[in-house]
Design goal:
about 280 residues, alpha+beta, N-terminal domain of MutM-like DNA repair proteins, Helicase, Ruva Protein, domain 3, 2 domains, 4-stranded antiparallel beta sheet, globular, binds zinc ion
Length: about 280
């Protein structure tokens, strides 16, 4: 499932393709949204943003297309009226003269007015988006100390979009690895120094992943590994999906287990207490 950085990159691609343009055709697969088609065709796309794992396409005046890909949705950007070869079902198409933005398989699509963003059942419960400029490590630190979150195990807390929006499973594993923490620990059990490091890495690794299209490993190390001929899947992460391979930091073994019902990858020696 794409995480915050991938959804933000997707929003950027859609914005580059159709931003600032009045589409000449908007098509929804869902009957209850079809009456919006002629309305949106008279409006200009003013902004495309992500909020956690949700995507928002703003049209001038007051309308916004909200979509959440869940596990199956996928956006494609194509030359106008070109469609990918796929067995997926097209759910939303926005065609301009030059480009088409196409959303397949997603079932979670709505048209909202601006004031409804605040009360939307998914959006209103989201924590601060890690990729927003206003989300500082101090804000994340404050939330780690908040009673709502400080008694929760890190392994599930980091996946909870109410805590912060945008972290998913690979970022959870990578953040816990670089901070040397095990997923069973709770924020209230950590020292001030550990809490600060955790808050900083939540922001740092998510931003790095957004800027590098998904790389969470140390970027200096990535250069060296590329020179050695490592493939992207080999150099991309510290530990995620690297089970049974040597840890880049200590040469110990990377192990796979399950935490909060999701696969969890860690280094036994860099993260004491994982087993
Ligand atoms: Zn290690």
């Amino acid at each position: 499932m794409p995480e915050g950085p991938e959804i933000r990159q997707c929003a950027d691609r859609i914005k580059r393709a159709i931003g600032g343009i009045q589409p000449h055709q908007v098509s929804f697969a869902f009957e209850h949204l079809k009456h919006y088609e002629p309305i949106l065709e008279k409006k200009t796309v003013t902004q495309v943003k992500s909020r956690g794992k949700a995507l928002l396409i703003f049209f001038d005046d007051d309308l916004i297309i909200y979509s959440h890909n869940q596990l199956y949705g996928k956006w494609y950007i194509k030359r106008a009226q070109n469609f990918p070869k796929t067995n997926r079902t097209l759910r939303l198409a926005i065609h301009t003269e030059k480009k088409s933005a196409l959303l397949y398989s997603a079932s979670d699509i709505e048209v909202l007015k601006k004031h409804e963003l605040k009360t939307h059942p998914f959006l209103r419960n989201l924590g601060p988006d890690i990729l927003d400029k206003e989300t500082t490590y101090r804000l994340v630190l404050k939330r780690l100390k908040d009673k709502r979150f400080s008694g929760r195990q890190l392994g599930s807390l980091l996946l909870d979009q109410h805590f912060v929006a945008g972290l998913g499973n690979y970022l959870r594993c990578e953040v816990l690895f670089v901070t040397g923490l095990n997923p069973k620990l709770k924020p209230k059990q950590l020292s001030e120094q550990q809490l600060e490091a955790l808050a900083k890495q939540i922001i740092f690794l998510t931003k790095q992943s957004y800027e590098t299209k998904g790389i969470t490993n140390d970027l200096g190390r990535v250069v060296l590994l590329k020179e050695k001929g490592y493939t992207r899947s080999q150099y991309r992460h510290h530990v995620f999906a690297r089970n049974n391979r040597p840890c880049y930091a200590c040469a110990g073994k990377v192990t796979k287990s399950v935490h909060a019902s999701r696969p969890f990858f860690f280094c036994e020696s860099c993260q004491p207490g994982c087993i």
